[in-house]
Specification:
Elements (H helix, E strand, L loop, with lengths): L1 E6 L6 E6 L3 E5 L2 H6 L3 E5 L3 E5 L4 E4 L7 E5 L5 E5 L6 E5 L12 E5 L9
Parallel strand pairs: 3-10
Antiparallel strand pairs: 1-2, 2-5, 4-9, 6-7, 7-8, 8-9
Bound molecules: zinc ion.
């Protein structure tokens, strides 16, 4: 497993993950569609927020089970707590400069099919 460091655009939020990045996830729910984010799902304990706890804002919608975190200064989505998996965390691969997400296999999540996901 490798260590990767990620950050929002203004660097207020910085995090580190342990992962083998072989594929990524894209979701078609109304929120992800707008963010157009390429994500990675990892166990929660593989994610460490290094900096920026106070710079993070949280967005909740629909059932409010999922927690979507973004930097309140630059607006960049960094990670989220998924609605269906409390033990996992979703990370924005675009925040990690060492990863070229365009070279990864994409798993498509049918988020729009979840209740209220549209
Ligand atoms: Zn920022």
């Amino acid at each position: 497993m490798s260590k990767y460091q990620g950050s929002c655009h203004c660097n207020a939020v910085q995090f580190e993950i342990d992962a083998d990045i072989e594929s990524c996830v894209q979701c078609d729910c109304s929120l992800c569609k707008r963010k157009n984010a390429v994500m990675l799902r990892i166990p929660k304990d593989k994610f460490r927020l290094l900096k920026g706890e106070d710079a993070l804002s949280r967005y909740e919608w629909n059932t409010r089970a999922a927690k979507h975190y973004f930097c309140k200064h630059c607006g960049i989505y960094t990670h989220h707590q998924p609605r269906t998996r409390a033990d996992m965390i979703g990370v924005n691969l675009g925040c990690i400069d060492d990863v070229d997400a365009s070279k990864l296999a994409v798993e498509r999540l049918p988020g729009s099919q979840l209740s209220g996901g549209r």
